[in-house]
Design brief:
By secondary structure, this protein is α+β, with helices and mostly antiparallel strands. Strands 1, 2, 3, 4, 5, 6, 7, 8, 9, 10, 11, 12 and 13 form a 13-stranded mixed β-sheet that branches. Strand 1 and strand 2 form a beta hairpin. Helix 2 packs antiparallel against helix 5. It is globular, with a radius of gyration of 19 Å.
Length: about 280
Amino acid sequence: MVKRRFSLAAAAAAAALVVAGVTGCGSTAQPIQVSLAASEVLAQAAQKTEQVSSYTVDGVINATDSNGQSGKVQGRMLYQSKPTLAVDFTVDAAGFGEQQLPGGAKAVLQGDVLYVKVDALNKVLGATKPWIKVPLTEAGSPGEVQRYLAQVQQFDLAAVTKMVTASKDVKQVGTESVNGVDTTHYSGTFPVDAAVQLLPADEQQRAKENLAELKDVKFDIWVDGQGLPAKLQLNGEDKGGKLDATLFFKGFNEPLTIQAPPADQVGELPKSAPESAPSPS
């Protein structure tokens, strides 16, 4: 149950792996007109995020299960889809209850190769280098690697923005400054079942599994003058469990430098973990 609740925290922030990516050209967005209805603003925001080829996001996700145990994921991500797909993801803190991830985690995705730096994972797999190279084209990657890769989905701009368009009760709250950017604040709720249906077909099953215990999610979104989200908050509660996530987006379509770790610090993915190795926390 603890692991299940913690997966909800990750999934509610974004339902699809960011490696699926945001495709398209640089933004040609025009400022949103104040005459637009709140639902139209969300629809435009979802369309415009599909044109974003790079961005930076900082986020904090908190979850509590029905037994009162709490968990947290805090980190940041740099994302670009051009000229090649690349992601730099840093987890500063992650854990649930007594299970923690000492030292955090780091992942760099370059095309179809993932580089992972997690001390707990290295111990499980018996790795001898700080970084592990994981070709995503190879089948049968260890479950631990897939679990850490799935954490990247927490900060996915396109998936989260798409899901909030399922709201039927969104309304404008007011205007606010977010990190020095003038924005319009909107608030509402969206039903999880309907939101999942808006995702690409190949992402829906993962979303259904991860969001199965939540029915409705309350959201607040701050949209800038170009129609892109500067801040997003998600809150969900069901069967005694709670979710609280806050994401800050910036640097849309700005150049990023995302590099693979030095070759002398990278080891190959071990074929199998030592039998005596403990599970990562």
